[in-house]
Amino acid sequence: xxxxxxxxxxxxxxxxxxxxxxxxxxxxxxxxxxxxxxxxxxxxxxxxxxxxxxxxxxxxxxxxxxxxxxxxxxxxxxxxxxxxxxxxxxxxxxxxxxxxxxxxxxxxxxxxxxxxxxxxxxxxxxxxxxxxxxxxxxxxxxxxxxxxxxxxxxxxxxxxxxxxxxxxxxxxx
Length: 173
Prior knowledge:
The protein is an alpha+beta fold. It has helices at about 1-25, 35-60, 160-170; strands at about 65-75, 85-95, 100-105, 105-120, 125-135, 140, 155.
């Protein structure tokens, strides 16, 4: 976080320098306020770049075996440009190397961990183990402590679910 602040300050200084050079090249015909305006635009430009490149940056940090199964975009009032170009605020990942397949009563049951990355003022990662019956498409979370199925939270996935295709497809391979 401190490095982003330092980078934003340097972006502001560089943009202010450009404003100062433009003011000098115009023989001071440009108003004095052009320098702080360029500094503010430099900071804003850096912040927008960081926000929009967050998803790709996090994907590059993941291992090769990771597969993104979903992502969500959002808009915010204090970032009006997000109404035109929504920003990715969270995504979910499955590590295909850590999928455990079992055959229970003729059904293929897969155990895996779903990682959810959420962009906030600091990045947040949550992990949740799941069981998925590939034939009936039933997904049930497991408690983190004991590993027991939480049947009250059972849900049925759609046939076109990316999570179903990823987990069951990799389990069969």
